[in-house]
Amino acid sequence: MLQMEDIPSVTALTSHGGRVILTTEPQLVAADTVYVSGEIPRVTRFERGLPGQHRRTPDGTAWELDELIKDERFLAVNVAGKGVIVFTACSHAGVVNVLTHARACFPGVPLHAVVGGLHLAGVNEAIIPDTVAALREFDLAVIAAGHCTGWRAMTALANAFGDQRLVPLSVGKRLTF
Question: How many CA atoms lie within 13 A of 11 on its CB side?
């Protein structure tokens, strides 16, 4: 087990000025300009989260399997003249599940880009071919893939989409839409 730091408590966050909203429902934030998804439905046959992932039990005394990581969310911004830009953290839900849900949340509005980690490294390398094939149906103008995508997936994405659509992310990278 690689134990990570605990997430700060609601009390700790509010004591530093945070306004915590605990919900599984989607939210509009930043003067209603940014959409924060609710729980992301798992609809693909091949995206099953992060095999082997565990979390602490609610009482903090033990560990339990948490491969679906259901608390993951995505952010979306509808850019005039472009479409929806989807920001995903690590895509533990699977980037195809994320994009499928984003498309359902914005019917009739094209998805323009996905930005974030695609979590196709390590134990998820086996789903690279399925993921690349499924990404074609979204016809994204930009796939900005980052930290946990992995070099094998980056190579497969570059071969499938070319360097005009694939943008490797890095710290300080600036994207203009």
Answer: 0
Up-side HSE of residue 78: CA atoms within 13 Å toward CB? 12
Cα(23)–Cα(51) distance, integer angstroms: 25
Encode pLDDT of 118-175 as tens digits.
999 999 999 999 999 999 999 999 999 998 999 999 999 999 999 999 999 998 999 9
Domains of the chain: 23-168 (3.60.15.10)
Instruction: Answer yes or no: is pLDDT of 68 > 90.
Output: no
Q: Are strands 111-116 and 83-88 parallel, antiparallel or unpaired?
A: parallel
Name the percent of the chain lying above pLDDT 90.
73
